[in-house]
């Protein structure tokens, strides 16, 4: 930060950081695509998730500059910078994709070798000959979290139609339907909706394949698993080596027109951001060096407090659960996790707990691994937030090591209990999070009833409001209520067992409890 702090310097620094991020991200993504790094990583991860992470990193680096603005507007400035940077980074990814996209145009598909097709990203064909007398399909469904009371059920039909003039080559298409999925939705009604949708969607590939001329070549980073499953009836008895030569051409309307549209969007977004920053900062008192220094001082003090807390005996164990959640998530990303699919097979391979795996196969270890597997990024983010909240509330009553143990004990217990009342896999750390909530509630109530100490009423009130929202959110269609309730109850029991054991066998803990 320069010595002279002004509205202009803050705007220049913000735009400069964004442009620096854009250049670095475009180079990394270009190399990624050019040299086929991480082929199992689905395209939506660099398309959505990495820009979201870059936006968060940018906000972190610019936090002191934004906090130097008038207190009434700094929150709004954070929002505008986050949104604008997301738009810029997403379009930067499109620029890298367009720069590396290989488009091949031919009269007939047989003019290309299989190797030439596989190396291309898009194929434009004047005449293609699908075998419209035959087709096959498969279906998939997954949940998109919209709110705590309602989710969105996405139903997909993946269709394939073989080509006459090339062996093991298929034209394919994906069609989707969406339906609100919340409290009160019966399984019979949802099943009827999916059956009707499947009936109207299937078979459309035969007409669409004859009319199509522009195709996307499906690679490992696309929905190749679903299309290969749809084509499995044509590949029965085919050696595994031959299956690697399968060509999948997805009907596409997205022709590659170059990256100039994305460049224009980036420039317009930055221009709008500059105007908004100038108005919010310039017309409301500008920026203040004192505000900037206070922000840095507060940040440094917070960092010292955090490091000091984790340096205390056993508190570093609190880092273990979030590291395992994030680590398991990264493992799934690098092994084919997709935002646009159910990921059931990948979840099972990664350690998800199902009734059959636990009760029939006796794979008891899955009650531990399943709590670190999550359905999507909102799922893992919500549980990480709940974990931090629970740790903060319990730090008044317990050592860090004991908080971590409460989480690690109640999580598997809630998974095991939820599996008994479920027909599907049970995943996620929310049972352990509710274990922390139950532990806090029991200790807080005990403190109030004993008339000892001074309960933190404001923290407790905020905590209770969030807990009530989470409990009622459990009535949405994709949440295990039994897992949450069992976590809440087991947390209340486990924490008092801990206190009794330590009270009689650890004198230092007796002093801590006073």
Please tell me about this protein's structure.
With 514 residues, the protein is α/β, with parallel strands linked by helices. It folds into three domains: 7-100 and 258-298, no CATH class; 103-251, no CATH class; 312-513, Rhomboid-like fold, CATH 1.20.1540.10. Helix content is 59%, strand content 11%. The protein has helices spanning 7-34, 44-61, 63-67, 74-100, 114-119, 187-201, 204-211, 224-230, 240-243, 260-282, 289-311, 320-333, 344-350, 355-360, 366-369, 377-394, 400-419, 430-450, 457-473, 481-505, 507-513; strands spanning 103-108, 122-127, 136-145, 150-162, 169-182, 214-217, 247-251. The chain has a seven-stranded mixed beta sheet. Strand 4 (150-162) and strand 5 (169-182) form a beta hairpin. It starts with 6 loop residues before the first helix and ends with a helix. The model has no long low-confidence stretch (mean pLDDT 85).
Short description:
The chain is of the alpha/beta class and 514 residues long. It contains 21 helices and seven strands.
Share of residues in strands: 5-15%
Question: CATH homologous superfamily name of the largest domain?
Answer: Rhomboid-like
What is the fold named in CATH at topology level of the largest domain? Rhomboid-like fold
Task: Report the mean per-residue pLDDT as an integer.
Answer: 85
Query: What count of helical segments does DSSP give?
Result: 21
Name the CATH class of the largest domain.
Mainly Alpha
Low-confidence stretches: none
- Helix-strand pattern, N to C? HHHHEHEEEEHHEHHEHHHHHHHHHHHH
Number of strands: 7
Strand order of the largest sheet: 1-2-6-7-5-4-3
Shape descriptor reads globular
Using the 3D structure, state the CATH architecture of the largest domain. Up-down Bundle
Number of domains: 3
Distance linking N and C termini:
47 Å
Helix content bin: 55-70%
Gyration radius (Cα, Å) is: 27 Å
**Would you tell me the structural class of the helices and strands?**
alpha/beta
The biggest beta sheet reads: 7 strands, mixed
């Amino acid at each position: 930060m320069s010595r002279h702090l002004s509205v202009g310097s803050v705007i220049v620094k913000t735009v400069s950081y964004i442009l620096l991020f854009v250049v670095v991200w475009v180079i990394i993504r270009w190399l990624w695509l050019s040299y086929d790094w991480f082929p199992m990583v689905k395209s939506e991860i660099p398309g959505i998730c990495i820009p979201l992470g870059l936006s968060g990193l940018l906000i972190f680096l610019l936090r002191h500059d934004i906090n130097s603005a008038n207190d009434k507007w700094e929150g709004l400035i954070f929002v505008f910078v986050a949104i604008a940077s997301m738009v810029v980074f997403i379009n930067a990814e499109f620029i890298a994709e367009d720069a590396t996209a290989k488009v091949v145009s031919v009269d007939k598909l047989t003019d290309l070798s299989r190797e030439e097709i596989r190396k291309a990203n898009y194929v434009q064909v004047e005449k293609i000959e699908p075998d419209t007398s035959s087709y096959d399909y498969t279906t998939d469904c997954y949940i998109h979290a919209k709110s705590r009371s309602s989710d969105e059920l996405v139903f997909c039909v993946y269709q394939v139609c073989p080509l006459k003039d090339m062996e093991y080559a298929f034209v394919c298409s994906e069609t989707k339907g969406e339906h609100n999925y919340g409290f009160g939705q019966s399984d019979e009604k949802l099943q009827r909706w999916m059956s009707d949708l499947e009936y109207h969607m299937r078979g459309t590939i035969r007409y669409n394949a004859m009319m199509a001329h522009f195709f996307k070549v499906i690679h490992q980073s696309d929905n190749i698993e679903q299309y290969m499953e749809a084509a499995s009836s044509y590949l029965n008895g085919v050696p595994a080596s031959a299956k690697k030569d399968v060509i999948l051409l997805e009907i596409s309307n997205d022709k590659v027109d170059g990256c100039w549209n994305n460049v224009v969007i980036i420039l317009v977004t930055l221009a709008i951001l500059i105007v908004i920053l100038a108005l919010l900062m310039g017309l409301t008192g500008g920026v203040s060096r004192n505000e900037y220094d206070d922000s840095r001082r507060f940040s440094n003090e917070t960092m010292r407090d955090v490091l000091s807390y984790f340096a205390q005996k056993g508190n570093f164990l609190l880092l273990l659960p979030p590291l395992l959640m994030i680590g398991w998530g990264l493992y799934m990303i690098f092994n084919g996790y997709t935002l646009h699919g159910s990921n059931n097979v990948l979840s099972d391979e990664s350690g998800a707990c199902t009734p059959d795996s636990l009760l029939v196969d006796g794979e008891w270890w899955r009650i531990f691994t399943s709590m670190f597997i999550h359905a999507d990024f909102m799922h893992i983010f919500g549980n990480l937030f709940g974990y931090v909240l629970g740790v903060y509330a319990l730090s008044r009553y317990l050592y860090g090591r004991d908080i971590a143990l409460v989480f690690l004990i109640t999580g598997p217990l809630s998974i095991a209990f939820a599996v008994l009342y479920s027909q599907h896999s049970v995943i996620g750390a929310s049972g352990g999070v509710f274990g922390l909530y139950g532990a806090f509630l029991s200790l807080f109530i005990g403190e109030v009833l004993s008339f000892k100490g001074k309960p933190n009423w404001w923290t407790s009130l905020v905590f209770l409001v969030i807990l009530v929202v989470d409990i009622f959110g459990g009535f949405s269609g994709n949440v295990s209520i039994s897992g949450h309730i069992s976590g809440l109850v087991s947390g209340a029991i486990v924490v008092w067992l801990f206190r009794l054991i330590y009270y009689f066998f650890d004198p230092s803990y007796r002093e801590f409890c006073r």
